[in-house]
């Protein structure tokens, strides 16, 4: 993972526009190169047992692949989460984010973060 590349805050709809570059695991969107993406939204599917959650950010949905200690958490549909992780595009599979997850304590917390980002 190249941490010198941006981890842009994106919407699911924007991720559909991203294209893989000639470099392995590097994506491009509007001239910005990235390997990781930052999304926020509501979990609409949270079985979690297979390490997959489904996030809806209001513009679309994306699978979240979680591993390790995060599988032990009690994920529930309706939870508001912020995720930053590697954006994965594999042949014959839907796009997914391999993530480290942080749970926002309330939906209001997530809205405050968004307002701060826009204002700063």
Structure description:
The chain is mostly beta strands. The protein has 2 helices and 8 strands, in the order αββββββββα. It has helices at residues 12-15, 107-119, and strands at 19-20, 27-29, 32-34, 36-45, 52-56, 61-65, 80-88, 96-103. Strands 4-5-6-8-7 form a 5-stranded mixed beta barrel. A hairpin with a 6-residue loop joins strand 4 (36-45) and strand 5 (52-56). The longest helix has 13 residues, at 107-119.
* Assembly state of the chains shown: single chain
Total domains, how many?
1
Number of helices: 2
Estimate the strand proportion.
35-45%
Q: Report the uncertain regions.
A: 109-120
Largest sheet: 5 strands, mixed, barrel
What characteristic shape results from the CA principal axes?
Answer: globular
What is the CATH fold-level name? OB fold (Dihydrolipoamide Acetyltransferase, E2P)
Order of strands, widest sheet: 4-5-6-8-7
Roughly what is the average pLDDT, rounded to an integer?
76
- Radius of gyration of CA atoms, rounded to a whole number: 14 Å
What structural category do the secondary elements indicate? Answer: mainly beta
Name of the CATH class: Mainly Beta
Secondary structure: number of strands: 8
Order of helices and strands: HEEEEEEEEH
Can you identify the CATH superfamily?
Nucleic acid-binding proteins
CATH architecture: Beta Barrel
What is the distance, rounded to the nearest whole angstrom, between the alpha carbons of the first and last residues? Answer: 28 Å
Pfam family, one: RMI2
Organism: Kalanchoe fedtschenkoi
Protein name: RecQ-mediated genome instability protein 2
GO cellular component, one term: nuclear speck
């Amino acid at each position: 993972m190249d941490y010198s590349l941006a981890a842009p805050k994106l919407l699911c709809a924007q991720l559909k526009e991203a294209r893989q570059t000639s470099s392995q695991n590097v994506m491009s969107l509007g001239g910005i190169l990235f390997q990781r993406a930052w999304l926020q939204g509501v979990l609409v599917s949270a079985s979690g047992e297979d390490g997959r959650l489904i996030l809806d950010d209001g513009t679309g949905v994306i699978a979240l692949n979680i591993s390790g200690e995060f599988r032990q958490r009690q994920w529930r549909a309706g939870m508001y989460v912020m995720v930053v992780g590697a954006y994965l595009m594999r042949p014959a599979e839907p796009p997914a984010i391999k993530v480290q997850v942080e749970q926002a304590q309330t939906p209001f917390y997530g809205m405050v973060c968004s307002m701060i980002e826009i204002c700063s």
